[in-house]
Write a structure and sequence with these properties.
8 strands; 308 residues; 50% helix; TIM Barrel
Length: 308
Amino acid sequence: MMTIGFDKPLYILPFDHRGAFQMQMFGWKSPLTSGQSSQITSVKEVIYDAFKKSIEAGVPKNKAGILVDETFGAAILLDAVTQGYITACPVEKSGLDEFDFEYGEEFDKHIEAFHPTFCKVLVRYNPEGDSASNTRQSSRLKRLSDYLHRESQSRLMFELLVPPLNVQLERAKGDKGVYDLEIRPRLMVQAIEQILDAQVEPDVWKIEGLDRREDCANVVAAVREKDRDDVGCIVLGRAEDESKVRRWLTTAAAVPGFTGFAVGRTCFWGPLVRWRAGKISRDEAVTEIADRYRTFAEVFEGKSYAAA
């Protein structure tokens, strides 16, 4: 059994999005044809090329990693493993309000086919929400957590989203920004406590951006309670604009226990849309994505890398 936790620097470029690419970028409904699937794969290869270029430009390889799905990125995952990159692969079904396994009872076989550094789960969990749903999710997540720590070499990366309930938005007078600033931080801590009480043991938590240092510190205290001293937190980008992501990274970087970030769509969505529209070349899209990712690494570390 592996010890719980991963507190090394971790700069993730996530592009495991499935529904977002299929519906929002291409406007396609399921089931996809093989040709449509290949087009999505080709878009993800642009992002992977950008990741590799960013490392050539100075992002430390031992801190850099990708998060990509098996559905459209299996070849990318396999190549990244051979290249010695940090890898993460999702195990959840895309787009569900309640966590469930993408591959059902065979989830373990799909993990071991790629041996990713991390298995990632995206979980929507509001501690004041549907208790039956939260219990079902926790039960499935415990099964995954137990498997990873007892039988696998992959670690658990837990992406916690706390979507507001209507009553919570009412308290914020319908203002999502007020919810994020004044209500969500407390709910995140409560959610973490409930998930840990259910014996789910993430090694790394992907945390929605927080504007206040004290809220970051409270999250770290929650994930590290009861001798979980090596558990780390990374900031996710939520597809927000660059200035907001910069602010979140700067705030989190000042708090011990926050070790990095996972910023995807803020890096790649705009360049990919312009490339597909014929406004920029593929090479230009690769360069722009690489530059954005490298910039976020620089922001988190508070320094600039010398371009190769």
